[in-house]
Design goal:
Layout lengths: L5 H27 L4 E4 L1 H7 L6 E6 L3 H8 L5 E3 L7 E6 L2 E7 L1 E5 L6 E5 L3 H6 L9 E4 L4 E2 L4 H7 L1 E2 L5 H7 L2 H13 L2 E2 L1 H9 L9 H12 L4 H11 L2 H4 L19 H14 L7 H9 L4 H4 L1 E2 L5 E2 L3 H15 L4 H13 L13 H11 L3 H10 L6 H25 L10 H8 L5 H17 L4 H15 L9 H19 L1
Parallel strand pairs: 2-5, 10-11
Antiparallel strand pairs: 1-2, 1-8, 3-4, 4-5, 6-7, 8-9, 12-13
């Protein structure tokens, strides 16, 4: 380790003090079987960044079946899900190790999956890695630091370069272009101009990569510490046009006759302001909704008299676009639904005015927000990017007022648990109908009434339901009397309570 500074040598020594029981044991086992082993990639990079976790990346000249032979009597558990790509997973105590055979990857122009060719030397393996900061290694068990491509100086300078020509690197694996943006977002690094030029010239090559791999990189980028840097790089190089085309389209033309905000810049500010409101680490649903909340504006832009520009119903159009884009990127269904719903709801607050909403309207706001209400609060607050300080303060005070009203009503009525005062069984009994669409329509009528009027009691709810049924020709006239229905419901409730007791 003589090529390291004193502080860097100390970082490596501290690392091996922690991992020696695992790393040195394993290094000795590989050496005894005639194989090389080295700690590599992000595991080494993170040592110098002061970030040491329990996941370690290692590389070896041993083939996967030979790796299995070395670790079979040593590891607590082994998994081979990545063995086709040369990787064997191992758990030893609290440590999770991924041991990968020296290799090189390349994409066939007609395939979405990388091919794997095993290598023979550590130096050649490091050359095929994505960036120099990830192309450093420490041999085991001797602790010899290996940095043939200047990763440590690049790490100190906070710059991303490729070990070889970037064009060759990106041709081997086009996903590395997205990784450059992701690392810029995660680490706050700048990207070497030659790398940026290659990303720009080869942007369309990203289309050979599967949607799932693209999704994973975008998700890591958006959840990074500096997502603006990564997103800006994607837009500037043209990569975003292939993987997230709605983003560059937010750069709407602005002329001297038609006035509106720079939607692209506004979106990045909203994202940053939403991040500032997070309380427990990155919230992917909040961040994606902030990024996509205005993507419906380009499709809904209209020029009005007096130089104004309108974007009527852009939240509805944007929600549909959000759902389509996230489905194409293969996001989980619940994430797609949540992000699209937040995009759809993000303008709802602006109907509040200076507090004109009735309690019924506040109940509906809470009901529509559902489990996303806290995120909706944050997104709505983050969406204020006006430079007019007085206007910004007024909007903040107004939303404070709305949240106070929500809290008051929640205490009085348990808003999060709002249900009609009659359940499905009671509706069927009262109307004399069987399960079916009519019960659903009746349930919706009772829910709307509950939101509008609050708690009115079961008897009044039953009377209102019968009036509704009469107006809509619902039921066969054989249902219960409202008072009888109320008594039956009370008896059922008492019986259930006794059974539970």
């Amino acid at each position: 380790m003589s090529n390291l500074s004193v502080s860097q040598q100390k970082a490596v020594i501290d690392l091996f003090r922690r991992i020696a029981p695992v790393a040195d044991e394993l290094g000795d086992r590989f050496a005894a079987h005639g194989h090389q082993l080295a700690l590599v990639g992000g595991s080494v990079r993170d040592v110098f960044l002061g970030r040491i976790g329990n996941d370690l990346d290692l590389t070896t000249d041993a083939r996967p079946e030979q790796v299995l032979d070395v670790v079979k009597d040593w590891a607590d558990s082994i998994w081979t899900i990545g063995i086709d790509f040369g990787t064997v997973g191992v758990r030893k105590g609290n440590w999770v190790l991924e041991i990968t055979t020296y290799r090189s990857e390349s994409y066939d122009p007609k395939s979405r999956k990388p091919g794997v060719v095993y290598g023979e030397t550590l130096e050649a393996d490091l050359e095929r890695r994505d960036f120099t900061v990830n192309a450093m290694a420490v041999r085991l068990p001797g602790h010899e630091f290996v940095d043939p491509y200047g990763g440590l100086p690049d790490l100190s300078a906070k710059v991303l370069r490729t070990p070889g020509p970037p064009e060759r690197s990106f041709d081997d694996d086009p996903l590395r272009m997205l990784r450059a943006a992701r690392f810029a977002a995660q680490l706050g690094f700048t990207v070497d101009p030659a790398v940026v030029d290659a990303m720009t010239g080869m942007a369309d090559r990203i289309e050979i990569v599967s949607a799932e791999r693209i999704r994973d990189e975008l998700d890591k980028l958006i959840c990074g510490a500096h997502p603006r840097e990564g997103l800006g790089l994607l837009v500037d190089t043209g990569l975003a046009a292939h993987v997230l085309p709605e983003l560059p389209k937010l750069r709407l033309e602005i002329d001297e006759h038609h006035r509106h905000k720079d939607v692209y810049e506004h979106t990045l500010i909203v994202l940053e302001q939403a991040i500032a409101l997070e309380q427990a680490g990155p919230d992917r649903v909040l961040r994606w909704s902030a990024l996509l909340h205005d993507i419906g504006k380009p499709k809904t832009r209209r020029y009005e008299e007096g130089g104004r520009v309108s974007f009527h119903h852009h939240e509805v159009v944007g929600a549909q676009m959000t759902k389509k884009r996230m489905q194409e990127l293969r996001f989980p269904k619940d994430v797609v639904a949540d992000v699209a719903r937040l995009v759809e709801l993000h303008l709802r607050f602006h109907g509040y005015g200076t507090g004109e909403w009735t309690d019924s309207a506040v109940r509906r706001y809470v009901r529509d927000g559902g489990h996303l209400l806290e995120r909706l609060h944050k997104l709505t607050r983050a969406d204020c990017t006006t430079r007019n300080r007085r206007k910004a303060q007024a909007l903040s005070r107004t939303y404070d007022d709305l949240e106070r009203r929500i809290s008051r009503l929640a205490e009085e009525e348990e808003l999060a648990k709002i249900r009609p005062e009659l359940d499905g069984n009671e509706i069927q009994r009262l109307l004399g109908v069987r399960p079916g669409p009519i019960v659903g329509e009746a349930y919706k009528f009772l829910l709307d009434m509950r939101l509008d009027k609050g708690v009115i009691g079961k008897e009044a709810a039953a009377e209102a339901l019968l009036r509704w049924a009469g107006e809509h020709g619902v039921g066969d006239g054989t249902g219960s009397d409202p008072k009888d229905a109320t008594k039956e419901a009370a008896t059922d409730a008492a019986t259930d309570a006794a059974a539970d007791g």
